[in-house]
Queue: 2 jobs
Job 1
Amino acid sequence: MASTRTPSPWQLATRTARMNPSAIREILKLTELPGIISLAGGLPSALTFPVEAVREATTRVLRDTPREALQYAASEGFGPLREWVAAEMARQGLAVSPAQVLITTGSQQGLDLVGKVLIDAGSRVAVESPTYLGALQAFVPYEPEFVGVDGDGDGPLPDALASRAAGARFLYALPNFQNPSGRSISAGRRAQLARAAASAGVPIVEDNPYGDLWYDVAPSAPIASHWREGTIYLGSFSKVLAPGLRLGYVIAPAEVFAKLVQAKQAADLHTPGSTSASSTRSSAPAFSTTTCRRSAAATARSAMRCRRRSSLTCRLRGRSRVAGRCRAAACSSGSSCRRTSTARRCSSRR
Ligand SMILES: Cc1ncc(COP(=O)(O)O)c(C=O)c1O
């Protein structure tokens, strides 16, 4: 008997033909098999997740500022978190205003927004070879033409950038512990790349989710510090806090920033959590505490003091996993910030 199925009423957009299932998701499926410890994806160890601190901070936000936490909020993101990011970037050598920081739902969303705002069908996009599959996946729907820029153990070659990337909308580069190769770009090469990109008129999209995972030597200042008006910088809390929180950020020059915000408004209005306690000052310490793995048991006053020290304590936390010496200094401050001195002691060992 002949089939009586009616034809599908759906006609997919042409761009969907270029979309493929994420190779990363396929890799992640493998990591769930018993007995597999996969080094293929950028998965942080679940043992490092600050479960208790997140629980306490969430409880405190919902206790102290429940209505602000549950209301719609600004698309740019939670103000104190934007300030924290700007202060942290200044410490790393990139002076930016909080007004340039857009909080995103993971840096993966940042990549999608960048693609949406900068890529037309047929635009050239220069990428390292190899590069992060998830970035290719984010850019592909906007129908770019990818050009690979050759590199060596020190990163993309400035000459290759000049010859291959001419006319490209941007170069997508991973400065630290590159996914998938693991290499980092030296300070000298960063400066050369920025110079080559500026003289070729090719802006840079610098994606740095792994930069805070260093052991002995901190990464060099971002490429963006060499060409601020020509670089969009993406950061993530996934690798140092927990990927399930879906929290990242994009730092962009003013002329691109407004368009990124509009693209984000269309995508998801705002990032949950980062804006959860947006309209009152007292909620700021609670959220900052969450993002810095600090205990929300601290009072608002002591947590505000902790917030000022947060970059120090987060770094200590990073080192504690390596050295096993500073663990106590990285956890809850308590209401009287008794651990300040411990934190200082640890910092002097760096
Ligand atoms: C290079 C790179 N960029 C961006 C991301 C996305 O990170 P997020 O969890 O912040 O969306 C990843 C995730 O593994 C990554 O490896």
Job 2
Amino acid sequence: MIETPASTTEGADAAALRERARLTFDLDVDICIVGAGLAGLTVALEATRMGASVAVLEGRHVGWNASGNQLGTVMPGYGLPLGDLIERVGFEDARELWSLSKAGADYVRATATEAAMPGISLSEGALEVSNVDAGDQLISRLQMLLEDFATEVEGWQIDRVRTELKTDRYFHGIYYPKAFQIDGRKYVHGLAALARRAGARIFEDTPVVSIDSSGIRKRIVTPSARLRASHIVLAGNVHLGAPLRRLSETLLPVWRYAGVTAPLGDRLAEVVGFKGSVSDTDGIDHFRVVDGGRLMWASPEITWAGRPRRFAGAIARRIRTIFPKLGRIEITDTFGGAIGQTVHGMPQIGQLRKGLWVTSGFGRQGLNTSAMAGQLIARSILWGDERWRLFTPFELVWAGGPAGRAAVLVVGLWNRGSSAAAGALARHRERVRIREGLREARLAEANRQAGTRPAVARRPPPGRPRPVRPPQPRPAQASQPPQSVEPPPPIPAGQDEGEGA
Ligand SMILES: Cc1cc2nc3c(=O)[nH]c(=O)nc-3n(C[C@H](O)[C@H](O)[C@H](O)COP(=O)(O)OP(=O)(O)OC[C@H]3O[C@@H](n4cnc5c(N)ncnc54)[C@H](O)[C@@H]3O)c2cc1C
């Protein structure tokens, strides 16, 4: 079984929220759920609200892994980019899947109220920034989100992004005004409290060691008790292990760690004006301001587990790289967990055999997707809702065991390396453009003062705004022939890079 040290700073409030009850007696229920993370608890809450008797069996404690150690950003969509989703299932099904993902975010918003979960600290807005200068791609994505996928978004130009985030690392951005963030740890414990209140029984320190799902009444074995249930829901993510090892092997475990800085005072407001979550399109940076003056920042994904504290230095270095003006950073809290990544990038939601369900593989975007999955599965079991079938194109694909993990490490490093290279190239191009712009302005000014005009007007490379020229004074000598203002032929792609560098 894969072990994950989850948090170095599990708060006293989280500890207080737990009432650890181990299952020590045999039990008969309608639905037995394996795993008390976001996925299992949402099924539990919804199914009990619909009148089912529910037992949740959790090997450690509520929110032990990723669910209790995440950044709390709630956005529409999946880990799989929208374009890939359309390619995979076609436009119409992609639209339905997307709207389910939005419904998942709405569910979290409706559930995470201050009244139901005191201190949940909901705040609005998320910004997705690009590491490269990709304005054209941004426009087509914006159009698609707005017009075809009914998602409220705004496109932010580079200047706007950099007014809010003082760094030259990020270029354009997509702003999601309806996205939001919550205290992720409070949310998972709040879900458990709501489920208990609705009548679900949650047993902690109760690992499921085997299941027999062949009969109508299925059997579940734990170290000190047995259960019988009509339905079993597997929500154990990468740690499921013995009950259905083949299912665990369809997930690639990747770990993500995060840190929270000591209060940064006024210097934080000078560099980060944006109040919501920020993530980059390459999935490397993900951060937000918390507690009025600290930064909460997630590391990139890695393929091994470590103590969260070990990653504090790397997180601090990354923050300084993006925001050098912040100076020295101290990381006071660290936490993290294992994320279950599927080969196709979409979650595993559905019925494996009659009465045996899976809700897993939510990757780095688990809040809205696990909420949606919880509703779908509870409704399928109790009301016969068949919409989970939209996920059937995303089959259970063996993730390759240790060889798969090695491959994901190489691909991850390669992607990170190529995204860093693309970012560096984009920033280099931008420096060249700025230098060129300054040179042109100086030339124009010199010409203006000398009363001359430049010999040849330069055409800006494609996609670059044409410089606005100051009005040219009339030539001093009437006999001077008119100069050509026609631009020269376009500079072939790539050749403009070296110029002026
Ligand atoms: C650092 C970090 C930041 C993140 N930030 C965000 C974010 O901002 N927004 C977002 O949407 N997502 C985020 N995520 C992703 C999100 O946290 C996950 O997708 C989500 O929590 C997965 O939930 P889960 O219930 O499937 O799995 P888990 O949280 O792994 O829960 C599974 C539970 O099942 C239990 N279990 C497993 N096997 C057994 C067994 N045999 N018997 C009994 N119990 C068992 C485990 O002990 C565990 O508690 C983040 C993740 C990390 C690590």
